[in-house]
Amino acid sequence: MFPRRCLFVLALLCGASSLEAQPPQPPATRIPIIPDDLLHRPLPLRLGIGSAHDVVGTTSRQAQAYYDQGLACLHSYGWLEAARSFNAALTLDANLAMAHVGLSYAYAELNKPEQSRAALDQATRLGATATPHDRLHIAARVAQVAAEAAPADRATLAAYRTALDRALQAQPGDAELWILRGVAESLDPSDRGQGSVASAIPFYTRALTLGGLSAHHYLTHAYENSEQYAKAVEHGSAYARLAPNVPHALHMHGHVLRRTAQIARAVAAFEEADRVQQAYFRTEQLPPESEWHHEHNLDLLGSSYQYLGQMQKAERELSAAFELPSTLAVQMYNKRGWPEFLIGRGRLDEAMAAATILIAHPVSLVKATGHIEAGHVHLAAGRFAAAAEQTNLALRALRMASTGQALIAPAFQQLQGEFFLRTGEREKGRGMLREVVRTARALPGPDNWVQALFTLESIARTARASGDWEFAAWAAQQMLEHDPNYAGSHYAAALSARQAGDLATTQREFAAAARLWARADPALAEMADITAGQPVPRD
């Protein structure tokens, strides 16, 4: 899951220079573009992709079927398949206004803003002779686009919600309108349901009673975002059963299983999502970069293996995700997971090579991320002057970025805090890192939850390397509070307890870590420490 709409960057490029006439770069630095002909490629009516049905103004049963398929794809964030389905509907009924409305969503998410606007303009023109149902949906979409254009203007969001409320008064049995109204509870008008809040739950529940089964997806998000994880698992399971051929449906179930300490089942869900995704790529002869979800699933699968101590598998997935070209700023930023993994395993030369690739990216936001990771490498190697230089370069890149600074600010603050901790300004570093921990732990959603856990682990490791064992013990306690089911939390606590001479706590925490790492790689260094009789910290 990504919070909000993930910040498409192809159109804005965050302060990037021209991409023309540049020498070949690693795939991770390339911004993919989905060709228009792919969006018009014919496709069959598919099975196992969920259920969506909304009677729209067409006399063609096939056009209606393709429209419903496009709608189901929108509900699963399958933007490419949605666009193909809506375009297929239009080949059967060129006057189907609602197919153009669907395209306005799909093209927007595929980072084709001009085509999105053109599709909505065409829907508006056709709306003059459309059915009352279709006109209500067109008007609501027009109001939403106006709100998206002014996201800080709460009046436009209120107008969008009012348009939906009026449509529901006229069409109270319209499950799709109830779903849209639930999504509109988000403060971000361009949210597609990932950021669903608790107040959206009654709207989605009403949609379910009217046959809008796609509401299971949104209810999964709403319940996980409001930390009602048992309900999230319930709806995530239902969504996966309804759409077994949709990688994101299988992935969503894994989301909430991971958050409820069912990590093995979560891994199985992510693995199945990957198998379904890879089969789709082979059948359709598409490159992996054509689906945003693929990289996201690899990230979560890799971090889940890392959580289990299965570092060889984690390396395979995280490196594969790192290599993929990305269109989303959030995914570009999340590429930091690979160099951070390498730093944690002590592979500093490889981590620097990965950071250098990010520094070469055309997007300033990603350049800043690369400089931050390079700074961490230098800190781990004790090269403090070089770390300070990378910090300054990261700040310069952030100032050049036209958007996304809030996304990367905590990582920048973590680098600064760890720098101060390692260079003798202990209290200053502690204060900054406590704020990083507070911010990280407060972020909603299972993705942020596991990222916060690894952030805490990095801070604890830095504190130990700096000789600040009091702060290391505090960070270990934060890890235990954040996730007592993670072996690394107990391992960090054991190291701090041993340094303090607390033998009973040391033995207890090492035993807990060993139990939770029961499925780890046999050669996991931390397990070697634990089983050696007199474990030695790796830092």
Task: Please give the structural blueprint.
Elements: H1 36-39, H2 61-75, H3 79-92, H4 97-109, H5 113-126, H6 132-149, H7 154-170, H8 175-183, H9 201-209, H10 215-225, H11 229-242, H12 247-259, H13 263-284, H14 292-308, H15 311-323, H16 329-334, H17 337-344, H18 348-359, H19 364-380, H20 384-400, H21 405-422, H22 426-442, H23 446-465, H24 469-482, H25 487-499, H26 503-516, H27 525-531
Description:
With 539 residues, this protein is mostly helical. The chain has a domain at 1-29 and 325-423. The protein contains 27 helices and no strands. The protein has helices at residues 36-39, 61-75, 79-92, 97-109, 113-126, 132-149, 154-170, 175-183, 201-209, 215-225, 229-242, 247-259, 263-284, 292-308, 311-323, 329-334, 337-344, 348-359, 364-380, 384-400, 405-422, 426-442, 446-465, 469-482, 487-499, 503-516, 525-531. The model is unreliable at 1-23 (pLDDT under 50).
Query: Ranges with pLDDT <50 over ≥5 residues?
Result: 1-23
User: Beta-strand level of the residues, as a percent range?
Assistant: under 5%
Our count of helices gives: 27
Q: List the secondary-structure elements in sequence, H or E.
A: HHHHHHHHHHHHHHHHHHHHHHHHHHH
Main beta sheet: strand number and arrangement? Answer: none
CA-based shape: elongated
> Ends: how far apart?
33 Å
Overall mean pLDDT stands at 92
* Relative helix content: 55-70%
Radius of gyration: 24 Å
Strand tally: 0
Which secondary-structure class do the elements indicate? Answer: mainly alpha
Give a summary of the structure in a few sentences.
The protein has 539 residues and is mainly alpha-helical. Helices cover 68% and strands 0% of the residues. It is elongated, with a radius of gyration of 24 Å.
